[in-house]
Amino acid sequence: MARPYILICLLGVMAGLTFSALAQEHANSASSPSAAAPAQAQGKSSTSAATHTSSLAKAVPDAAQERALRVEGEKRFRTNCGRCHQAPHKFPPRVMAAAIRHMRVRAMITDEDMRLILRYMTQ
Amino acid sequence: MQVPPVKPSPRAQLPLRGGDHPSRSEKCRSFACRVALFAILTTFLTTQLKAQTQREEEVKPVPLLTGSAGFITTFDGGEPHLHPIATPLLLVPIGQRWVFESRATFETDMVQVPGQSGFHGSVAKEVEYAQLDFIANPYVTVTMGRFLTPFGIFNERLYPVWIRNLQSDPLILPIGIGPSNASTGAMVRGGFKASSKFNINYTAYFSALSTVSKLDSDRFAGGRVGIFVPAAQLEIGGSFQHGLQDQRSNAFGFHGIWQPPALPLDIRAEYARSIAGSGYWAEAAFRLSQIPFHQNELRRTQVVARMQQYFVGENSGDALLPANTKLFEFGMNYYFIDGLKASANYGRKFSSAGNANVWTMAITYRFVIPLGHTGSE
């Protein structure tokens, strides 16, 4: 007698989770244009910084290094995470820190890979 | 710096042979030695890590309730099965080096009962694992408690319904993983960069006998080693296990994962052999993202095919099939969004017990619920 109710509850849970996933996806797509904003802002700031050559000379190597780390982090992320499952979207920093610690144990990813992936996923 | 994987003490792996029972004092001494050895090892391993963990912990991890849920419908030889399943996973990071993780499964296999209307089945509840991990240093993690037996790759890494490409279990899955897919004891594991070209991952474990219902495990010891070549996106490895009870039999297996860098293709394969039986599975999954038309739909679509074969052993038990079986499956996955997937596949089973068609349809979802503030600090 209880079986139909269990089935209905499970279907309800599935429906709820699906709606939450769709909402999350919508939020992600809504936030993605804003991700371009810092890049534009960075472009503007770098233009204005042209007048300050000394600070620019210092900032360029840092930016190049940061970009290289990000590219390497993305590469490690695709290589390590994609070995077993579809690479997930980015999560908030503290969520990602917990997930990466779990994956370090489960998937035995190296310490270096873990730090690069965490950096890529949280910045 | 290269540090070789730490192996458990050879003494810890020695079975107690019949007719050679040690006295109580010898047993106590042996146990004390093992505890002392473990304590020394742990102390030694924790000394070199402060700088590394400080960098890692710039972002404090938050406890998570994650996991997956799915609804799987199967027609096996014409008999319909409804299989709702939910597997919540609790992750609790503790301090800078510890993490507690536990996964439970709630599932039911509902079938039609002659003379009754509708589908009937009971809900099975099980704690699949509950383990405490201690990240001792960049090379070693120590795990204690109940953990998924690391034999091959499917049980530990590909089992959740949101990860697996085909919803059916490989026929050889029960080989080497114990009576309820898990072990009770301790394990050391880790992964490290062995050279600029490849990484090595390893695990060594000991499981004690447990006869507690739903938490049962066998007494055995074993290990697994894998080599991962990032440039080729190729991982190969092998597993070994030695039983420490009953027939004290051995089991071994090999696994491989290859993702050709130029193609959205995943190739996975496993072979396992034990006294219970032997067999293999090989699977290819191809994402249609490179087809130049209908890209929005096709980049979300994956076609999958798997071939597997199982040969009955001397002592196949209840978990394995009673007859030699060959199974070919192919199907399709459609990824709506991150974590939400629909699957459909067809399989043809060839067995000395009778051939059958197997149809499967499923919808699966992976959820992540933070149990706390998710900001950067």
Short description:
The complex is a heterodimer of chains A (123) and B (377). Chain A is an all-alpha fold and 123 residues long. Helix content of chain A is 82%, strand content 0%.
General form of chain B:
globular
CATH topology of chain B: Porin
Strand runs of chain B, count: 18
- Biggest sheet of chain B, strands in spatial order? 1-2-3-6-7-8-9-10-11-12-13-14-15-16-17-18
Biggest interface, chains and residue tallies: A-B, 49 and 71 residues
Strand coverage percent of chain A: under 5%
- Could you say which overall geometry of chain A the principal axes of the C-alpha atoms support? globular
Model description:
The complex is a heterodimer of chains A (about 120) and B (about 375). Chain A has a domain at about 55-125. Chain A is about 80% helix and about 0% strand. Chain A has helices spanning about 5-50, 55-80, 95-105, 110-120. By secondary structure, chain B is mainly beta. Chain B has one domain: Porin (Beta Barrel), CATH 2.40.160. Residues about 1-20 and about 40-55 of chain B have low confidence and may be disordered. The chains are: A mainly alpha (about 120), B mainly beta (about 375). At the A-B interface, helix 1, helix 3 and helix 4 of A face helix 3, strand 1, strand 2, strand 3 and strand 5 of B.
